[in-house]
Design the sequence.
């Protein structure tokens, strides 16, 4: 029990001071006039002034409260290296036992996990959250068991007690790390992109190491090995092999005695894009839809278009001298023999054999397709005649044979069953919203996929793969009616755009693909196919663990699933004959950017609280009690500051000058002064 005198003035203190001055002046005046009751007058005034201050005697019954020690255990990824978990667990056990043996001490244990979204170790954030739940006046100390690799050390935090850091790891630890710098998100196919690589050794690394092996793998293929000098920047030019996502993996094999190989691998994902798409458009007779293809291709700034139009066929004899014609001689030999492989797509729009392109040229076009080129044929009535391209060397790669019939009747183009699953035609507006076409060439499909049908379900649009190349046949020359808005029009530009880009092997329009999109540690896997069902998906993780998942139908021709990767690294996906790779996590996880235990990062925060930094390999430190403001750490020991906190259980207040006592004393002194001065 403790006692304290309190004051609760009935008037503001300035008023009380003024009254005190007034009383003092009256007493002095009485003294100067020789009144012998001046002292009694002063005592009466003093009693009244004291009563106005409201004095009271307060008695408290207090119960002492325990001191709180916050024990933070770092369980981030870098803390799971080597024997750090064993060191940490042993120190936690020893500290818990030592603190529990001290009377009046409580322990609050805090776990520091990996930060979300590769945020690293958030030790100061964890301490801030723990302090927010405890009375600051009871916190006697904070002890953190960590490797010192803290990524929020600059977080502003007012610590009420000494902070001690017990470092895990050993002074002999060393580690090798691979860094990849200035990796772009996009690169042009066929042009080299420059990456900067660096291999660094940290800690007590062997001094004799000068070169380190480096393995480079693209899309999970067999890696190529190079020897790279340690500690120097290496400039590496890389050419992307294909469009879409390219996953490049750089790996440095684990060295003997190295702390971890988790930072020896870097995954770079670069999207390959074409700089320019080179298209050769060969038009036959001018017709109403001839400008449709030209407008489509010229509207795309990434397309380089060469348009070859036959305006004066050889059989035209009008007597005009050749020297007076404004037409120019087209370089057919250069285009169809020497430069044909430079084109990404060749379009024949209502073209028929007229002797302008010899059979040798067309045979070279067929060879171009087989070796990876693309040809699109927009057929007109001439395709059904004797001069049809089908009856040329190019016919060997055309997926349908004309029956010599030209159907001149109105019909509604519809997407076939397989077309509902093909990326070229899936998702187009409903067929009921389309306008009709007025002509179709009757053909018999011999290969490929019929994605659109016309009159009496006859093939209208056929897509086919010929060895390494692709061929598309549109058995009508009336697609331009949609562009003119005939009977409401239709998705002509979208259809032709998709068709052209499928021909040029854009990854987004592949009909048989297996792709994955990563978000953090989760990936969404999509299998696109023309079949009604797909086999189970096989996922091989970075550690070789195999997971099998069933894919669920997500739309026409699409099957999908979600998968949470348990760790950062390269995952291999396999579904039937389709394979893919994807990298989860950043190119260099933050937890493994630096793995050597250090006191440099958090040293200033510890010094500000007069705490200490000790290594656990020297043993668990002893615990002492120190006064606030004194150094709280030394060789082999750390200190806690006793807080002396208490809880008030009972509170009583007694007035020192109750009103009856004030009245009695004041009246007595005034009466005594009057009597004394009256006798005189």
Sequence:
């Amino acid at each position: 029990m403790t006692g304290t005198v309190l004051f609760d003035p009935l008037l503001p203190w300035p008023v009380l001071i003024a009254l005190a001055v007034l009383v003092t002046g009256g007493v002095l005046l009485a003294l100067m006039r020789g009144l012998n009751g001046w002292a009694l007058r002063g005592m009466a005034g003093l009693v009244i002034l004291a009563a106005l201050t409201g004095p009271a005697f307060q008695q408290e019954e207090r119960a002492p409260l325990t001191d709180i020690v916050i024990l933070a255990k770092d369980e981030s990824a870098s803390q799971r290296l080597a024997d750090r978990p064993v060191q940490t667990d042993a120190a936690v056990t020893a500290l818990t036992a030592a603190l529990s043996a001290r009377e009046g001490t409580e322990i609050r244990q805090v776990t520091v996990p990996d930060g979300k979204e590769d945020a690293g170790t958030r030790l100061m954030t964890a301490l801030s959250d723990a302090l927010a739940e405890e009375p600051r006046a009871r916190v006697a100390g904070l002890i953190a068991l960590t490797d010192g690799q803290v990524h929020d050390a600059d977080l502003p935090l007012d610590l009420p007690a000494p902070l001690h850091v017990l470092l895990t790891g050993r002074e002999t630890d060393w580690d090798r790390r691979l860094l990849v710098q200035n990796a772009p998100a996009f690169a042009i196919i066929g042009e080299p992109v420059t990456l900067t690589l660096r291999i660094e050794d940290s800690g007590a690394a062997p001094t004799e190491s000068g070169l380190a092996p480096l393995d480079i793998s693209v899309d999970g293929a067999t890696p190529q090995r190079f020897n790279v000098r340690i500690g120097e920047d290496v400039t590496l030019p890389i050419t992307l092999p294909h469009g879409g996502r390219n996953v490049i993996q750089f790996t440095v094999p684990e060295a003997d005695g190295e702390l971890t190989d988790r930072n020896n691998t870097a995954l770079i994902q670069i999207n390959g894009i074409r700089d320019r798409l080179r298209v050769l458009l060969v038009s036959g007779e001018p017709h109403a839809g001839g400008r449709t293809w030209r407008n489509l291709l010229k509207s795309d700034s990434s397309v380089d278009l060469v348009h070859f139009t036959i305006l004066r066929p050889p059989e035209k004899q009008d007597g005009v001298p050749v020297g007076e014609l404004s037409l120019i001689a087209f370089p057919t030999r250069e285009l169809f023999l020497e430069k044909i492989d430079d084109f990404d797509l060749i379009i024949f729009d209502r073209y028929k054999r007229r002797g302008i392109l010899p059979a040798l040229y067309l045979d070279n076009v067929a060879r171009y397709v087989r070796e990876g080129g693309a040809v699109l044929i927009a057929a007109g009535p001439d395709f059904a005649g004797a001069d049809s391209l089908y009856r040329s060397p190019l016919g060997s790669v055309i997926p349908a044979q004309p029956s010599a019939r030209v159907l001149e009747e109105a019909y509604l183009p519809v997407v076939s069953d397989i077309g509902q699953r093909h990326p070229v035609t899936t998702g187009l507006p409903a067929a009921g919203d389309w306008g009709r076409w007025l002509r179709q060439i009757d053909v018999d499909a011999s290969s490929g996929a019929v994605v659109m049908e016309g009159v009496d379900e006859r093939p209208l649009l056929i897509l086919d793969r010929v060895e390494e190349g692709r061929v598309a046949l549109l058995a009508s020359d009336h697609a331009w009616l949609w562009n003119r808005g005939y009977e409401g029009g239709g998705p002509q530009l979208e259809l032709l755009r998709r068709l052209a880009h499928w021909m040029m092997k854009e990854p987004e329009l592949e009909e048989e693909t297996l792709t994955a999109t990563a978000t953090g540690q989760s990936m969404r896997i999509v299998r696109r196919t023309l079949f009604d069902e797909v086999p189970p998906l096989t996922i091989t993780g970075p550690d070789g663990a195999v997971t099998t998942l069933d894919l669920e139908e997500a739309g026409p021709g699409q099957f999908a699933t979600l998968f949470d990767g348990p760790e950062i690294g390269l995952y291999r996906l396999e579904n039937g004959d389709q394979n893919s790779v994807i990298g989860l996590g950043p190119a260099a996880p933050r937890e493994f950017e630096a793995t050597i235990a250090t006191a440099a990062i958090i040293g200033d925060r510890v010094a500000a609280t007069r705490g200490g930094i000790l290594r656990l390999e020297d043993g668990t430190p002893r615990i002492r009690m120190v006064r606030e403001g004194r150094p709280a750490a030394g060789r082999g020991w750390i200190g806690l500051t006793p807080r002396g906190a208490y809880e008030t259980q009972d509170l009583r207040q007694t007035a020192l000058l109750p009103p009856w006592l004030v009245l009695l004393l004041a009246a007595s002194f005034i009466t005594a002064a009057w009597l004394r001065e009256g006798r005189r």
User: Anything to note?
Assistant: The first strand starts at residue 2 and ends at 7. The radius of gyration is 45 Å. The chain has five domains: 2-61+648-679, 66-170+597-644, 174-274, 277-503, 513-584.
